[in-house]
Fold these 2 entries.
Entry 1:
Amino acid sequence: MKNIVVTLFVNGKKEVLEVTSKERLLDTLRDQLNLKSVKEGCDVGECGACTVILNGQAVNSCLVLTAQIDGYEVYTTESLENKGNLHPLQQAFIDYHAIQCGFCTTGMLMSAKALLDKNSNPSREDIKTAIEGNLCRCTGYEQIIQAIESVSKKVKG
Ligand code: FES
Ligand code: FES
């Protein structure tokens, strides 16, 4: 039975939600708010497919209980597009062929966004560290790293 009321600020919009004590943020986002960019992979914090930005940090939403994050800000990949324009990271993933099956992509994008929000000038090692919790079975990672690097270079100027 859902009996805990939680207020979240999701992609800039206030949401008042009823949840159970066991409801994961992953379920709240997908099932209550229809944010299907948040993917369900391993369910145990190992694949990163469910990554969102929670109060500025990239986190695995399968490991977060919604009841414990009352008042928090959450951002998903749905927040990246702006008035029909892709975010530079989204465009770079396309340009660098960093997407194959796409299952890891939204989680990768949120890990990359959290990194660039804090550090617009990351080293290659910084990028690798930022996405080390995001598994990709398809790309071999090089195109993903190049895509993120290309955006940081644009930010640099
Ligand atoms: S589904 Fe959350 S880390 Fe894999
Ligand atoms: S593109 Fe398929 S898992 Fe990364």
Entry 2:
Amino acid sequence: MRHYDVPDYDVPDYDVLVVGAGPAGLAAARAAASHGVRVGLVDAQLRAGGQVWRDDVRFGVPAAARRALAALRGQGIDWLERTEIVSVQPDCLLADGPQGARHLHYRQLVLATGARELLLPFPGWTLPGVTGAGGAQALAKQGWPLRGKSVLVAGSGPLLLAASATLRRHGARVLGIHEQAAFDDLRRFAAGLPRWPGKLIQAAALSLRLLGVPYRAGSVVVAAHGDDRLREVEIEGAAGRTRVACDQLAVGYGLVPNTELAQLMGCRLEYPGPHPQVAVDADLRTSLGNVFAAGEACGIGGRDCALVEGAMAGHLAAGKPEAARVLRLRRRHARAFAEHLHRHFALDARVLDLATADTPVCRCEDVPLGALQGLASMREAKLLTRCGMGACQGRICGTALRELGLSWPTNGSVGGVRPPLFPARLAALATLSTPETQGRT
Ligand SMILES: Cc1cc2nc3c(=O)[nH]c(=O)nc-3n(C[C@H](O)[C@H](O)[C@H](O)COP(=O)(O)OP(=O)(O)OC[C@H]3O[C@@H](n4cnc5c(N)ncnc54)[C@H](O)[C@@H]3O)c2cc1C
């Protein structure tokens, strides 16, 4: 990859532009570039790798990530790091990054925008010391001091194991992992794992790294207690309610696809559950002819699924369908694992019933659940309470409300998503809307 470092307006047309440099985006860029087309790869982060391959300040990136990144070198791919796509126009994306605002033109686009963590409100969840499980993992990798801290990990899904292993590696004392799924569900999940030997090996390796850490099934965090910070976590499990003193609580309930960019572009979405995902056909084509989607954005499927879908989307976007079609079987196998996972880690009703009227739901604007009940629309919620109008732009509270069955119908094809997708500098927005930057350069 080469770092793209020229002034605004000189950004070339890409044959294939990839948004997101996680496993899906990296695989897409590599596959497209292997056919000799001009490829651009954009990510909001400083380093490529996405969520699973986030750079770790102490331990670097895993070997698989190093291999994926090395494979991109020398392929002539333009790497636009720390560059956020903030809005769209009919034939280009509007990006803001260290070199300023710019229009990125493309013939074919691959959306590999990944997923975010699902956080659900419960009493005390906004106390300092409480984070998401993936959030705690990301903080640890960025150098957050953990040595000697006692951490409780809770929520649902395999991310709890991955996060616990990272926290332990950074010196935290992991007191226990509390999984909300029932023991029988976990047993059935484990019994099906031999169909995916790679996952079985991954699970075994994680278990080894977590030797001595208690793992409790059917166990739900019902409240976090403290004063100026977290002091105790209240848990409901097989032994009834118990309180555990700790320094940190890392609690996450799985992942939801990042669909906002696809939504803004007008791609059709589908709703297999409460959260949207980008609708794609067997060739990963969205409802827009020249836009493909791959990885978590089109349904939570995990790293292996992201890799194979990214490769397929890259080949297809480069106009090489035959190279993509040989990967279809691998994709089906990876997606079957995702279904297996979702079936056995479905959320227990208890988890959705924890927030009380005074529990904050919108953390950015400090809006409690009670202030939202009885409102008729998202517009009313925004106007009367400012819910969803803070820095996260509804990514946390909107997602939680949807999971709690408290979201409202939205009008229009873009489902209430408005530009800019992320808080953007006024200077960037001004540059992006001046007439001389509107056209193709
Ligand atoms: C917090 C967190 C931690 C995780 N940890 C693990 C783990 O330890 N092990 C594991 O197996 N799985 C983990 N996962 C699951 C992981 O998301 C996937 O398995 C895998 O990373 C999916 O790859 P992807 O390429 O689809 O998406 P991602 O890896 O999520 O990559 C998407 C990329 O798109 C970029 N992006 C999105 N929108 C824009 C935009 N508008 N402009 C510019 N860039 C944009 C993001 O910055 C991101 O780098 C984690 C997920 C999360 C949310």
